[in-house]
Design brief:
The structure is a single chain. With 374 residues, the chain is an alpha+beta fold. It folds into two domains: 226 residues, P-loop containing nucleotide triphosphate hydrolases (Rossmann fold, 3-Layer(aba) Sandwich); 127 residues, no CATH class. The chain contains eight helices and 20 strands. A six-stranded mixed sheet has the order 6-7-8-3-9-10, with helices on both faces. Strand 12 and strand 13 form a beta hairpin. Helix 2 packs parallel to helix 4 and helix 3 crosses helix 4.
């Protein structure tokens, strides 16, 4: 495994063996001629909140289904949960449960009966089922709704019931398949906070599937970014946010300013890139060692671009002459586009009360500029 900025070619993403709750090696799976998983290796530590992030069709949900036992892969070297091989163990007998985006609750059952269901099929006695179901509902702050019908609940409450039903069996791993996708923005943010709190309270391993960068960055200990059946970057939220290892990662993680160029020089991680007739300074974040003259891209987030003259005596690295372009008020912030020698550059201003007068320069620090293979 690399130091967090990327992956080796075999895509091995592992934790120390003694810490592992999940260990999958070289899993491959096809749907007809479509390669859904291309030899992926992934591990999750005990008590970790691991997010598998990617666009539609990247293979993230197939990965979850393989972990859950809902999909039998074409080939795999190893699938272990808590040190036990589950490659040939059916889904119902694996020590993990899944929370789906659309909850999959039984409308003819009460809240309590829905939560008890997993215990019932396991043959747990009636009194024990009720006790454990109430404990699970306490965890999600719904003990008073036990007798309610599912139709009487809000979307957020239904999501909590689905969580309680998944937790009542005390799984080693909780799998969450885009569980907040059907909620509105405010409720989704509230549920993010509740999931973080629940994870900290229980100390269980959570494996979360999403296409939302915001959800991944907000909740995760580590993130595996997938593309076309492969893990293309693996690391902490900060590493993926600030240090993309490819143009795809930079674009997917929301870098608004990405420009192609040639690597002119490199000293350690400090890189100089020729973009047209301009030299841009940045930090090499690619997976492999860079080569002078190779095609690269430079990426900088709009909120790291500053408008106006750089502070006196401070060497920021990149200064561009510009002319003001489109100004967009977006409520929480303002997006200001400018014309530069590199093309259009976007700056984000969080202080919406700031009066932007006529300006002729923008600047950003070397450390805020990622340089990756193009």
């Amino acid at each position: 495994m690399t130091d967090g900025t990327g992956l080796q070619h075999d895509q091995e993403v592992s934790a120390e063996p003694a810490e592992l709750m999940l260990d999958i090696r070289n899993v491959r799976h096809n749907y007809g001629n479509v390669q859904a998983l291309r030899g992926v290796t992934l591990s999750a530590r005990k008590g970790e909140f691991l997010t598998i992030l990617g666009e539609s069709g990247s293979g993230k949900t197939t990965m979850l289904r393989v972990i859950a036992g809902l999909e039998k892969p074409m080939s795999v070297d190893r699938i272990e949960i808590d040190g036990h091989s589950v490659a040939d163990v059916p889904a119902a007998q694996r020590n993990c449960t899944t929370v789906f985006q659309h909850y999959a609750l039984f409308p003819h059952m009460s809240v309590g009966e829905n939560v008890e269901y997993g215990l019932s099929v396991r043959g747990v006695g009636k009194e024990e089922r009720k006790r454990r179901a109430l404990e699970a509902l306490e965890l999600v702050r719904l003990p008073s709704k036990s007798e309610r019908g599912i139709a009487q609940l809000s979307g957020g409450e239904r999501q909590r019931v689905a969580l309680a039903r998944a937790l009542v069996t005390h799984p080693a791993i909780l799998l969450l398949d885009e569980p907040l996708g059907a909620l509105d923005e405010k409720l989704r943010q509230q549920m993010q906070e509740e999931l973080i709190s629940l994870h900290r309270t229980l100390g269980k391993t959570f494996i979360y599937i999403t296409h939302s960068q915001e959800e991944a960055l907000t909740m995760s200990d580590r993130i595996a970014l997938m593309r076309q059946g492969e893990i293309v970057q693996f690391g902490t939220p900060k590493e993926l946010f600030d240090r993309p290892n490819s143009r795809f990662s930079a674009d997917f993680m929301g870098f608004e300013n990405i420009f192609s160029g040639k690597l002119a020089s490199v000293n350690g991680s400090d890189a100089e890139v020729a973009v047209g007739g301009k030299t841009v300074l940045g930090v090499w974040t690619g997976e492999k060692a860079p080569e002078i003259g190779q095609s690269v891209c430079v990426a900088v987030r709009s909120e790291r671009v500053k408008i106006g003259v750089q502070p006196e005596g401070e060497v920021v690295g990149n200064v561009l002459s510009c002319s003001p372009g489109e100004y967009l008020y977006r409520g929480k912030y303002v997006d200001q586009s400018v014309e530069t020698e590199l093309g259009i550059v976007r700056a984000r201003i969080w202080d919406t009360t700031q009066q932007i007068s006529d300006f002729r320069e923008i600047f950003w620090r070397r450390d805020d500029c990622a340089v990756t293979p193009d």
